[in-house]
């Protein structure tokens, strides 16, 4: 228990749903480092206990292996709830699309109910996929998006949109809700078989396999390093007044898929060739966040540029001996 002016003070408790995943485990690291007690709820669908090994002897950390579509044990109370529970990579969220949709909607509902009961602050990990294949560029929070409701990405995009709608219904009923629209984030602890661009390109380059470029490689994304994203999520939780709209969190540096392939090849010194594959259905053509609201309201901005963030990511993948190779979309 922390002591402040000689008085024992109970640490704040943060509940992190999805805390065994890539982003969630880094968030847990930072929350524990800030003196919080952390309760992680995770079904281990795409996350792993390996990501939480550092807490094996940590008295302030508990992992509850449970699906957020199931009731949350009543004894679990928190001052802060982060909802990151949802597979984020297209091959993973499309593997069981009905469960993805239910995870977003039922999971958000259960965690929002818990926030209401505990009078906790709630941060929702929403996504740039809210904007679909955007007609507005860069994307601002007031853009309502262009999402195909019937395509294979809809389970994720529309699930996250429905979760945002729930968030604002709870907010109108006085729950302290904050929504982060997260843009593509990468870094150590992504799975080699995650299927997203950075993990695929880095593992392919390191093993000398062809780099799988979908479409002509001219589509763009903006890549945020994981430490910046964690700082943004915490800043959103910690800002005293809940912002009245969602907040974009991402790095506005915009790169085409082809440019990312070149950068990874250059940084790994790999001789991998490029292998062009069909563009997946509804793959957004471009994406770049307008982060002025995050700057104004949270005082947050990303600090790590692509080259700086790729270096430790490549180093981390090089140190792994992946049981699984990259997952490539059909
Ligand atoms: P991830 O797949 O590594 O992590 C998701 C975690 O949620 C995993 O640990 C998984 O086991 C858990 N989970 C999934 N379904 C669950 C369920 N029904 N019940 C309990 N736990 C469940 O993905 P990530 O990249 O770390 O993403 C974390 C969150 O951030 C997700 O909600 C995702 O939508 C959001 N997000 C991430 C990105 C990104 O680029 N990383 C971009 C936009 C939004
Ligand atoms: N992509 C690619 N090759 C891969 C994986 C992804 O060309 O092996 C492309 C994909 O088509 C998309 C971009 O990279 O245009 C980002 O894909 P990712 O799955 O990482 O994220 P999302 O599409 O959800 O933004």
TrEMBL record:
GO terms for cellular component: cytoplasm. This is UDP-glucose 4-epimerase. The lineage of its organism: Bacteria, Pseudomonadati, Pseudomonadota, Alphaproteobacteria, Rhodobacterales. Its main location: Golgi. InterPro entries: Epimerase_deHydtase, NAD(P)-bd_dom_sf, UXS-like. It is a single-pass type II membrane protein. Its EC number is 5.1.3.2. Keywords: Decarboxylase, Glycoprotein, Golgi apparatus, Isomerase, Lyase, Membrane, NAD, Signal-anchor, Transmembrane, Transmembrane helix. One of its GO terms (biological process) is D-xylose metabolic process. One of its GO terms (molecular function) is UDP-glucuronate decarboxylase activity. Residues 15-250 form the NAD-dependent epimerase/dehydratase domain. CDD domains: UGD_SDR_e (cd05230). Its cofactor is NAD(+). It is found in: Golgi apparatus membrane; Golgi apparatus, Golgi stack membrane. Pfam families: Epimerase (PF01370). It comes from Jannaschia seosinensis.
């Amino acid at each position: 228990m922390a002591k402040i002016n000689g008085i024992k003070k109970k640490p704040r408790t943060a509940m992190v749903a999805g805390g065994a995943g890539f982003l969630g485990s880094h968030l847990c690291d930072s929350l524990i480092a800030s003196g919080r007690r952390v309760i992680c709820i995770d079904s281990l669908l795409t996350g792993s206990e390996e990501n939480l090994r550092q807490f094996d002897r940590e008295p302030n950390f508990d992992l509850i292996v449970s699906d957020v579509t199931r009731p949350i044990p009543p004894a679990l109370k928190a001052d802060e709830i982060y909802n990151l529970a949802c597979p984020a990579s297209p091959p993973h969220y499309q593997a069981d699309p009905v469960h993805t949709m239910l995870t977003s909607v039922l999971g958000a509902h259960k965690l929002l109910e818990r926030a209401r009961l505990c009078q906790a602050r709630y941060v929702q990990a929403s996504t740039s996929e809210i904007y679909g294949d955007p007609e507005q560029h860069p994307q601002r929070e007031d853009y309502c998006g262009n999402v195909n409701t019937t395509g294979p990405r809809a389970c994720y995009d529309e699930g996250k949109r429905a979760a945002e709608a729930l968030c604002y219904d709870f907010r109108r009923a006085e729950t302290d809700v904050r929504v982060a629209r997260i843009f593509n984030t990468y870094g150590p602890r992504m799975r080699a078989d995650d299927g997203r661009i950075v993990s695929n390109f880095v593992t392919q380059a390191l093993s000398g396999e062809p780099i799988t470029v979908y479409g002509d490689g001219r589509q763009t994304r903006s890549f945020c390093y994981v430490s910046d994203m964690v700082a943004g999520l915490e800043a959103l939780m910690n800002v005293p007044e809940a912002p009245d709209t969602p907040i974009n969190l991402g790095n506005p540096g915009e790169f085409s898929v082809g440019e990312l392939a070149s950068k990874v090849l250059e940084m790994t010194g790999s001789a991998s060739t490029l292998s062009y594959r069909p563009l997946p259905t509804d793959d957004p053509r471009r994406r770049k966040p307008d982060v002025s609201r995050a700057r104004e309201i949270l005082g947050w901005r990303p600090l790590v540029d692509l080259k700086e963030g790729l270096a430790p990511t490549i180093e981390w993948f090089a140190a792994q001996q992946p049981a699984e190779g990259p997952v490539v979309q059909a």
